[in-house]
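We close this part of the discussion by returning to an individual protein. The sequence in question and its structure tokens are set out directly beneath this paragraph:
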Amino acid sequence: MPGGLGDKMISDISKIILSSFSKKMNPGSVGTESVINDVSAEYAKFSGFAEIIGDNFYDIDRDNPVIPPFFIAAVAYPAIKELMFSKILKANLLRLVHAEQDISVFRNINPDERFNIKAVIDSINTVSAGEIVNIISNVTSSGKNEPLMQSRTSFLIRGQKKPSSGKKNEDSFESVSEFKVAVPFDQAKKYAEVSGDKNPIHVNRFAAKAAGLPGTILHGMCTLGMVNSVLVRELCRSDYNRYAGISGRFSKYVLPGDVLSIETGRRVKDFYMFEVKNVSGKPVISNGKFFVR
């Protein structure tokens, strides 16, 4: 941006963000729901989403196709967005980072199936780094109300104190396999388009820097989605019927152009432990669990 206007913009936005550090989310918003009924998954939407996260669902079973399980990220997002943007919650979105994610898949969704989505603010907790808001989203079949998928999402609204760099309650495991996945430089913009998540820290470098970041960062769900696609292919041999879900803690942001290493352990009961590291060897997803049937 010419004339140093970019630096001034960053400074002005930073002042706004800093002035809001003392503001807290409204605990009275716990229990607030967002419901979207009778939703259909359009092929163009879920196929485009799958392509961005590297899910090769269209090559698996053309005669009996199912919606890529991780599409719940895009399916549930409108309901989650309504809660996060709601005036009753009072969340500062420029201070928001994805903290943890847990997805459970009970049954695959067919392309012609209609379903309902209900997201609810489950809790708000104060931590040393700020505040955590937990949202639970349930996807059920229309009519029968059969549970299909559940998403548990935790967002951190950062305070002035930086998160501790020490490891907390992280499960250790012996790494037996390693897989690589490259993050394209335009991945954040592409994911924003297919998911609808256009938070400025992912698509605008001035807003990202004003929020204290080195530049635009990848969505946590995009990172997890890319990892999920690799693990479905490698650990389930691309069989969605064996896939039951994924969970993990976002330890560090991912930058466009990074190369991620996915380390997995041996199967323990119904899951594999995994950890994802960036090109510098620092964990970006820890306490990962990949659930199988």
Q: What stands out?
A: The first strand starts at residue 33 and ends at 40. The two ends are 52 Å apart (CA to CA).
